[in-house]
Specification:
There is one protein chain. With 185 residues, the protein is mainly α. 66% of the residues lie in helices and 6% in strands. It has one domain. The chain has a three-stranded antiparallel β-sheet with strand order 1-3-2. Helix 1 packs antiparallel against helix 4 and helix 2 runs antiparallel to helix 6.
């Protein structure tokens, strides 16, 4: 993945975060945008998944890190039901911070790799049997995809559970029953 591609992927992810900070319906239509963005990113930027040496371990580690961050981000997204029973959600500061940390870490790696640390990454790769730059690119793209998909999965499950929960009764508080002298309440 070249630097321009990395900027594009991460810009899309940042735009998704900006959208998620505003309260929005947690319906299938609302979840479709991020799914489409993830699908497009996979088609455009995930050319191959190298499997030589320890490439699969690198890719699995990045996918796992992305999934964990996505699950945590989904867990820390605020959900509520409005008066009509529709589930609404918005990313809180913890959720948004996790997302930004993931995007920032991937961008920092790409910038470092293309601005002086490439030889050090190459030595690390050789020492740890990572076969190519494509393995790193695939690992970083799959990390982003796992982050988004895990977050969406957690949000989908949480929003369906909240939608299925009985609505809080809007009954007025019970009137106080006067206690008569000599009776035990």
């Amino acid at each position: 993945m070249n630097t321009t591609s990395a900027y594009i992927v991460n810009a899309i992810l940042i735009l998704l975060v900006v959208r998620q900070v505003r309260e929005h319906p947690m319906d299938l239509r609302g979840l479709a945008g991020p799914v489409l963005a993830v699908g497009a990113a996979a088609v455009f930027f995930l050319r191959s998944v190298p499997a030589g040496g320890n490439d699969l371990l690198l890719e699995l580690a990045c996918v796992t890190a992305g999934a964990v961050m996505g699950c945590l981000s989904g867990r820390f997204t605020h959900l509520r039901r409005d008066r009509a029973g529709q589930v609404l959600g918005h990313a809180g500061w913890v959720s948004a911070s996790l997302w930004v940390a993931g995007v920032g870490a991937r961008m920092a790696f790409v910038v470092a790799a293309t601005h002086g640390l490439g030889p050090a990454i190459g030595r690390f790769s050789a020492a740890h049997h990572i076969t190519s730059a494509q393995a790193w690119a695939a690992a970083l793209v799959m990390m982003a995809l796992a982050d988004v998909l895990a977050r969406l999965t957690v949000l989908f499950v949480r929003s369906r559970r909240l939608a299925a929960a009985p609505a809080a009764a809007a009954a007025p508080p019970a009137a106080a029953v006067p206690v008569r002298a000599g009776s035990h309440a």
